[in-house]
């Protein structure tokens, strides 16, 4: 790829609204060539809008978007970008091979069709009609069409939706193979683990804002501690928020979930109470990461994490 | 763009409903109108109706491309094309050409049934020129269908395309001869793209070249419908 710019993606103060909703709200982001970046956020956080802006499918209301120093439309026209979109359905009456070779044929330096099919795990389905495949296979077809042009920047919008565990593993392996060739990859996900396992850098977005940006370790630290859960079996819930380390308490039926920034101390205190039925200690999930990374209420600051105020009834926590 | 034309042609020819409505219907209607209705005066009507129905079949197939495009929009295929390195004008042109090529089978089917079943006799050159003119002349209608398809939802496109097709076909005298129209309607019919389209064929069957007015009017309709298609595609690009 003869693209002089060392920056693959640049977002400068980008704002995009739909009616009253600010889908992307003043995003500042620069991604270097060759980076693998995860865009982490809940549904509706602004991930898909960010990707549409990168592809020129949407125009920002304010700010500028650049890909390899060009406008998105130009970068797309020059074949520098390949993308796997979330909402497309398979097009009828075309085989996998026909579709992938057609997409590749439009790019200046496409990947050999057989290689794109192999990377996406589609070799054995090459002559099947695209609309006769299962959901997981269709997802692989989307991946193959994104790879077909051998683009310098690969954008993947929730690429592992509809994939089973085995297919996920294979998918990430292929993605890393492609990234290791010096290509820039950006994928969106709502799983912190997936982001941590497969990206060099995680950008967390919430309500259109970038609330954290850094390597997985940094994000997990900011997300704060662990989650301790156990069966209540009659234990009173009132005192739980006062236990050492506990930052938040959620109760789902008979099970209590304590978010803690010192799980050892919390577990010892629980042992002392005799409340260790089906005790589990797990790293904080994305939901919990969001509790600390995003605002706890109006006016709270972003990104710095743990407020040590017990959140017995956190507004974002779900009660089943 | 050639690859795009190839892909879209394959998709159309693999569509069973295209084969039934784009090829079977015009043949059936031609045979019914010429043999059961006892319509018009004998051989002349058989030739005229053959050309009218071949033209009608060509229109159906041409506008079918528009219905396909609307469905493509709904499933996100147009979006996929937009994020590929293919300029919008090439998308529209490529789709118009692939739509045009799939028009040919319908024309050939009606002309063949005219020759083989109704015993229509024309010179060899007339058959060839007739086929080519009807084929090329269908291009403005492909553009009209595409314009509707890029602009409207899949369902709306189906309805609007059929309405355009029937309206223009009847008004242009493809179903009943214009000579049967009242005077004021005949005046309007003269300017319809369908009438001029069929005139390409009627002129050929009478052994002379189509008039300058016909060629000029067809050109004007092509430009008008072509512009409509490009504008509609640009618009769909923003909302799809």
Description:
The complex is a heterodimer of chains A (320) and B (240). With 320 residues, chain A is α/β, with parallel strands linked by helices. Helices cover 30% and strands 26% of the residues of chain A. Chain A is built from 10 helices and 13 strands. In chain A, the strands form 3 sheets. Chain A has a 6-stranded mixed β-sheet with strand order 5-6-7-3-8-9, sandwiched between helices. A 4-stranded antiparallel β-sheet of chain A has the order 11-12-10-13, with helices on one face. Chain A is globular and about 70 Å long. The termini of chain A are far apart. Residues 296-320 of chain A have low confidence and may be disordered. The longest helix of chain B has 34 residues, at 42-75. With 240 residues, chain B is mostly helical. Chain B has helices spanning 2-13, 16-35, 42-75, 77-82, 88-101, 104-116, 124-137, 139-151, 154-171, 183-189, 193-205, 212-239. In chain B, helix 2 (16-35) packs antiparallel against helix 3, helix 3 crosses helix 11 and helix 8 (139-151) runs parallel beside helix 12 (212-239). Chain B contains 12 helices and no strands. The chains are: A alpha/beta (320), B mainly alpha (240).
């Amino acid at each position: 790829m003869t693209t002089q710019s060392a920056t693959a993606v640049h977002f400068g103060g980008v704002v995009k609204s739909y009616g009253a909703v600010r889908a992307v709200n003043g995003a500042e982001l620069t991604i270097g060539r060759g980076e693998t970046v995860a865009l982490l956020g809940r549904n509706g956080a602004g991930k898909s809008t960010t990707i549409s802006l990168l592809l020129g499918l949407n125009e920002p209301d304010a700010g500028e978007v650049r890909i390899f120093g060009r406008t998105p439309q130009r970068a797309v026209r020059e074949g520098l970008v390949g993308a796997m979109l979330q909402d497309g359905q398979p097009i009828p009456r075309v085989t996998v091979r026909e579709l992938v070779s057609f997409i590749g044929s439009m790019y200046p330096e496409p990947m050999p069709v057989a290689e794109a099919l192999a990377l996406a795990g589609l070799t054995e389905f090459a002559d099947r009609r695209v609309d006769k495949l299962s959901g997981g296979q269709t997802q692989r077809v989307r991946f193959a069409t994104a790879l077909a042009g051998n683009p310098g920047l690969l954008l993947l919008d929730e690429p592992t939706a509809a994939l089973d565990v085995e297919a996920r593993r294979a998918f990430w392996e292929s993605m890393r193979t492609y990234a290791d060739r010096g290509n820039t990859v950006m994928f969106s996900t709502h799983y912190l683990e997936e982001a941590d396992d497969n990206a060099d850098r995680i950008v967390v977005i919430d309500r259109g804002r970038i609330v954290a940006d850094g390597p997985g370790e940094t994000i997990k630290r900011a997300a704060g501690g662990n989650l301790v859960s156990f069966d209540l079996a009659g234990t009173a819930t009132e005192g739980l928020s006062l236990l050492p380390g506990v930052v938040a308490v959620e109760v789902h039926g008979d099970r209590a979930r304590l978010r803690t920034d010192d799980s050892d101390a919390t577990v010892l205190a629980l042992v002392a109470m005799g409340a260790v039925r089906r005790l589990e200690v797990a790293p904080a999930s994305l939901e919990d990461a969001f509790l600390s990374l995003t605002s706890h209420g109006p006016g709270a600051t972003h990104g710095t994490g743990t407020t040590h105020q017990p959140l017995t009834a956190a507004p974002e926590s779900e009660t089943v | 763009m050639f690859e795009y034309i190839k892909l879209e042609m394959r998709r159309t020819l693999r569509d069973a409903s295209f084969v039934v409505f784009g090829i079977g219907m015009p043949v059936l209607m031609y045979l019914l109108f010429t043999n059961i209705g006892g319509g018009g005066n004998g051989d002349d009507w058989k030739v005229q109706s053959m050309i009218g129905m071949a033209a009608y079949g060509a229109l159906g197939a041409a506008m079918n491309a528009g219905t396909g495009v609307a469905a493509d929009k709904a499933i996100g295929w147009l979006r996929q094309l937009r994020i590929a390195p293919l300029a919008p004008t090439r998308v529209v042109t490529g789709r118009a050409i692939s739509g045009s090529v799939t028009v040919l089978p319908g024309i050939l089917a009606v002309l063949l049934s005219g020759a083989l079943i109704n015993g229509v006799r024309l010179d060899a050159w007339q058959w060839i020129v007739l086929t080519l003119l009807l084929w090329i002349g269908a291009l403005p209608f492909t553009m009209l269908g595409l314009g509707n398809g890029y602009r409207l939802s899949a369902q709306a496109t189906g309805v609007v395309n059929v309405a355009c097709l029937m309206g223009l076909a009847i008004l242009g005298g493809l179903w009943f001869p214009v000579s049967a129209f009242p005077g004021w309607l005949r005046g309007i019919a003269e300017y319809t793209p369908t009438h001029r389209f069929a005139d390409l064929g009627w002129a050929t069957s009478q052994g002379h070249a189509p008039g300058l007015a016909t060629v000029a009017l067809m050109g004007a309709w092509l430009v008008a419908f072509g512009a409509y298609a490009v504008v509609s595609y640009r618009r769909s690009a923003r909302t799809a």
